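Explain this one:

_____
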Amino acid sequence: MKELKCPHCGNVFTVDENDYAALLNQVKNSEFERELARRIHELEQNQQTQRTADQARWQAEQAKQQAELQLQLQTLQSQLQQADQQKQLAVAQVRQQATEAYMKKEQELAEAKTKWAEQLKAAQEQVAYYKDLKLRQSTKMVGETLEIHCSTLFNQLIRPLMPNAYFEKDNEVVEGTKGDFVFRDKSDDGVEYISIMFEMKNENDETATKHKNEDFLAKLDADRKKKNCEYAVLVSMLEPDSELYNGGIVDMSHRFEKMYVIRPQFFIPIITLLCQTSKKSLDAKRELALVKAQQVDVTNFEEKLMTFKDGFSRNVRLANERFSDAIDEIDKTIAHLTKVRENLVKSGDNLNAADKKLQDVTIKRLTYGNPTMKAKFDEAGKE
């Protein structure tokens, strides 16, 4: 039997084993259910708390991501606005530059037209001046006046810029001809970079026989080559009504190499133009001058080498001749010594034979057949 005490009234009562086990199971089941209900409630509360925390974290993460996306969106919008502003600024700058360039071109064109009109007017005035001048001068005076005019222009305009340039009358007659003027200039290191043969031609309008510019090109080209000049320029007042020659500098290189025909008003421009062009090839001319100097050095070296070789060959030839003569003399000496040796050998043989004969000589042999000498030797032996 088992005793049980009531927790409320304090009474003690007894129960058998079966009732006690039933009560005990009943108590255990009741406690288990309560504990299970409590655990389930706790789990539900924990899950609810976890769900609430997860939801809060998710909401916070979503808010953070939305904030970042909003910031990125604002940054992209700002960049787009900046790019659009830069694009508009670049377009405005291009338009402004194009407008300025157009205005500059318009201004340059207007200045060029004005300058050309002034040059044309000056050229027309000079042509009129020269026509009037020719009418008042003889043919010889017309030609001399053109030379003086060009020389004066050179000394006034070119000489101050090129104080070391050479511009003189061509007074050296080569093969019966000469030009009018020769122009040359050198760089600071002494390399000649430009040379021009000038020919001045003019004639009076009243001259019966009218010449053409082409009548003098062949002679000018020949004079250029004879004086070793690079360019040839014909300063001409011939054919005054020709639009070709009145239009400016005429390149005649299709007829003769580096040949030009000009009016007197283009005398200074042709010099400056050819000088500027030639200065661009100054480095090449320096290299050419260096190569020529090297070729001269090589030629001198080859000449010295050939002189040395010729002298050395002559000495070798003479030495060979002396050597042959010496060999002949040695051969003759050897032959002579050989003959002397043979004679000496024969003399030695004779001396040996004589010595042998001398060794064989005895008193007995000497007195054999000579009783008198035998008696004498016998008597001397006794004494």
